[in-house]
Amino acid sequence: MKKISILTILILLTQNIYSQNFGEFPKIEKEKLQRDLDLLHQGLDKFHSGMYWYTPKDSVDIAFQDAKNQINTDLNVFEFHKIIAPLVALSREDHTDIFLPKEVKEQTNKNENIRFLPLTVVFLGEKLYCVKNASNNSAKIENLEIEKINGETPKEIVTKIGILFASDGYIKSVKYSDLGGFNFSKNYFYYYGIIEKYEVKFKEITEPITINSLSISQINENLKKNNNIDKEKTENEPLQFKIINAKTAYLDIQTFSNDIIKRESKYKTLKKFLKQSFSEIKEHNIKNVIIDVSKNGGGTEGNEGLLYSYFGDNYQKYSKVRVKTQKVILNNGIDKPIKLKVFGFLERIFVNKKMKDGSLERKNNLGLGLMAYKKAPKDTFKGNVYVLISPITYSGGSEFSNMMYSQGLATFIGQETGGGYYGNTSGYSQDLTLPNSKITIEIPALQFVMNVEPKLPFGSGVKPNYEVIPTINQYINNENIYLEYALKLISEKQ
């Protein structure tokens, strides 16, 4: 995969920034913005345990210095956001997020002069499709493939606007996946500012179609008018089990979050769901189990190991779980110092050990520890396992996939996971709100280094044995083509 160089990022992050229109937001004095930049640099450098896992420190320092040089005049919050968002993304860690101030987002939604591309879209692989038309143009463009917008291909656009948010390592599938829905239009605005009109070239239509930009209120009104919106809430059980035939069972595990499972699942706990499911699998002498984590973005630590315990032997799952420091004070010499901290007293003293460099590492035998799981369940499974994955498979969902892939316990179907194969930095995140721009950066503190076999390139997610990408019709009809493909494979092997 082609990687974007630091120089390219530096060029892209300030491209035409002073000639762009982000709306009538008040200017913030350049000196104040430079102080915010200093605090951001300190926060990422001192508190983010995985900041330099993918991007060397000297490269990050150069990027911050260049950004400081670019702030040579007063800027509004969106202009400043365009400069610092790519700096945050240099962490190459999807748990590191940046948020505009709440009042700015509210003003953006209410201001009729701030206008966006009035389409919702989806990327299927690297192909971009219109899902809903919220424009004033009545052309039938839903479900059509977009080839160009204002002369640029979707791939060219993603290369630019994709630097505004982080993804794990060098996993490019996440950049496309995260720009689904209205996120494409929103990030297009964050990068290009207000565009009066868009020339959109659809593959199925000979000439480009002109689409005028619209405000959020107009877009919402058109969505109600142009689309049949089913207002009934569709209930979705986050944990699903079914026996498909005499030899095959299917488990759909959409989250590892204990809170969500307790609130939305009839099983109330993942442990109960797995115990009942694998008891039935044993009772029916099932030979093939399909585990669907294609919608699993993670959740409560330990649940990925609980699921893994039904398939693999126990082993040291993490090489280490590391925190760079327990506490930092960020101080630019003028604004009020900001304190960021990680553990409470008991966890800091009893669960972790202090290293010579001042970092803390988790002990193996206390708390969650470093092992894959605590105790093997009764009804383990030793048959054929198929794991369904996608760019949404992230955090704990990807850690389960990492273990299964490393140990050679499953066949993987779908698309590359969104979480890094070699680990991630997450957990105990702290919000750093910059005092002058009021932009907030969520900085994760725990670096989870996974003990995996070096079967994949550094910076990648788990890659499927069989890559499957839905067509637009399959996507619209909500077909589970990953499951269909798994069943086809099973059928062919019988």
Automatic annotation (TrEMBL):
The lineage of its organism: Bacteria, Pseudomonadati, Bacteroidota, Flavobacteriia, Flavobacteriales. It comes from the Bacteria. Residues 247-467 form the Tail specific protease domain. This is Tail specific protease domain-containing protein. GO terms for biological process: proteolysis. One of its GO terms (molecular function) is serine-type peptidase activity. It comes from Epilithonimonas vandammei.
